[in-house]
Every structure is written in structure tokens, then in C-alpha cells.
Specification:
With 90 residues, this protein is an alpha+beta fold. It has four helices and three strands; from the N terminus they run αβααβαβ. It has a three-stranded antiparallel β-sheet.
């Protein structure tokens, strides 16, 4: 008789797939100061972190600025969109 090993259920993969990110894209009309202030106000970034994200967006074209569940990210996404920043939840 062959005994079958049963792998215990691990929900960590399911939890990981629920994590989304707000991606901020570069544009030609918002200033560095405005983007930095918005990241501090809306995303609760520290000033240095906000400045680094702004630089990454400028040079790379995009940067993940916040992660979490879609439920938590939705109000942040809406506020950033209302401030005319180009963002998406991915």
C-alpha cells in the first residue's frame, strides 16, 4: 500500500495576490514640490521618501508609492487623481 503525503494548506499565496500598489507616473505639468507634498499628505511618506519617489518617477517614468488592499488604496488613488496626478492601482 502506498501512503500519500498531504501538503498542509497555506494561504500565504492568496494573501500576497491581494496586495496591490499605487503606481505614480511621470507627467510634464506637476512640479517636484507638488508631487512631494502630495506624497507626504496623502501617502504618509516621510519627506526623504517622498523626494526619492519623485526622483524615481522623473527618471524611470513610474514608481510604486503605496501598497495594500484595493479597499485601502482606493481613497488614496481617488485623492491623487483629484490632484491631477497620473496614477493606477495595479
Amino acid at each position: 500500500m502506498v501512503k500519500e503525503k498531504i501538503k498542509p494548506s497555506d494561504n500565504s499565496e492568496e494573501v500576497i495576490s491581494d496586495i496591490k500598489e499605487i503606481i505614480l507616473f511621470n507627467d510634464n505639468f506637476n512640479t517636484f514640490d507638488f508631487v512631494i507634498e502630495t506624497l507626504i499628505d496623502i501617502c504618509n511618506h516621510e519627506p526623504d521618501q517622498a523626494e526619492q519617489c519623485a526622483m524615481i518617477v522623473h527618471y524611470k517614468g513610474k514608481c510604486a508609492v503605496k501598497s495594500g488592499s484595493t479597499y485601502d488604496l482606493e481613497p488614496i488613488y481617488i485623492e491623487m487623481s483629484n490632484r491631477n496626478l497620473t496614477v493606477e492601482i495595479k
